[in-house]
Amino acid sequence: MRKLSVGIGAIVMWALLVLSGQTPATAQPTTSFAAPLTLPECVRYALQNQPVVRQAKLDEEVNEADIRIGLAGWLPQVGLTGNAQRAFQLPFVVLPNEQGGVTPRQVGLKNTSTFTLSGNQAIYNQDVWLARRQARPSREFARQNTALVRTNLAADVSRSFYDVLLNLQQVRVYESDIVRLGRGLKDARARYEAGINDKIDYKQAEIALNTSRAARKQAQESVKGNLARLKELMGLSGTQPLTLNYDSVRLELDAALDTTAGVEPTNRLEIKLLQTQKVLQSAQIGYYRWGFLPAVGAYGTYNTVFQNDNLGDLYSRRFPSSFGGLQLSLPILQGGRRLQNLRRARLLDQRLDEDVTATRNQINTEFEQALATYKGFYADYQYGKQNLALAREVFDVVNLQYREGIKPYLDVLVAQTTLRSAELTYNVALFQVLTSKVEVLRARGELAVE
After folding, report:
1. Where does 264-342 show beta strands of DSSP type E?
2. What is the pLDDT of residues 206-224, one digit of tens each?
3. 264 phi, psi to nearest 5 deg
4. What are the domain boundaries of the chain?
5. Which CA distances in Å does 96 have to 90, 93, 100, 105?
6. What CATH number labels 30-75+125-294+335-444?
7. pTM over the 0.85 mark
């Protein structure tokens, strides 16, 4: 019986919260992924869970509410008022009498109650006209702003994703280097103990090994920092696990980009937003230009008056009255306010033209810079790929010659350092190319956002 009463009480509390427009706080479940996420999956998750995107969606809903508030002026406005009062002293009126003089007399009843039902219908006025003209472009502006937020988020997630992959690749490079140095240290110590070489070789190997271990630690910590940034962009908390999935071959294929294509500024959402702002501003200009037109509306009122000297019998008899009509309101003198508002609106429209010009120039510059950066990094990537193959070949030859006693261990260390540097340079160049490609696509307005 106690369990049943507790369950009923919980249901009642839930119903009360729902009816009051509130919902009880519930713990957010920890998101867990069955498999590592690819870049498109990270972007898709971010677009669904990043608070910035949800805020933009809420801004759309707020804007829609504002539009409906403005358009509500076209609908009938109906109100009901009521009051009750008691007169402690009835008012006097002076009336003529039979003798040709005047006589003051009290009029009315002590207790009065009035109910008034009134309605207004706008036929034409500037405010509701402006609300109608701005409704569609205002919705478009809100949608374009959300699209811009999504595009910027997709670009940020892509850059952060590549930053994490670069750190992971650096960790792998240092781990491979540590394995090679560990083998070299073991061989150098064995040769020293056998009396073939002196202790300088294995001391140098130990120094190089410790240096590589320290660099690996730095790369591992960088992974944590950049992964935390990626989680933030995706809308994940710091405690939620996240692993990434990628294909090295696919990354190399994705590095390619058609550099012959130009940029069309009208594809950018920033230009579209400014163009929509100009439509909104044009409606504002029309609002002030035609502000001298009269406002026309219809109205009607129905009154019910109850009066009685006896309070208990106040509502026993009523005296109804009603009327309706048309109202015209024409502004005559406003001290030049309308003309100054019109001038100000036109100046703001001209300023938007300048904003469009400046944004076009900025987009062209942004594209040229992004394209130049991409081309430079792509050249580094191509040469880095060749250098990596050469460094591996040199290391294999020098290492073999060292084992045969032809080369000193110092040459092995130099070759190994060159190989590690080539691997790091290649990976940095690859992910710089991928990141700069994102910037080029964004500058063109071609960055894919699901």
Report:
1. 295-308, 318-329
2. 888 898 899 999 999 999 9
3. -115, 105
4. 30-75+125-294+335-444, 79-123+296-329
5. 19, 10, 6, 10
6. 1.20.1600.10
7. no
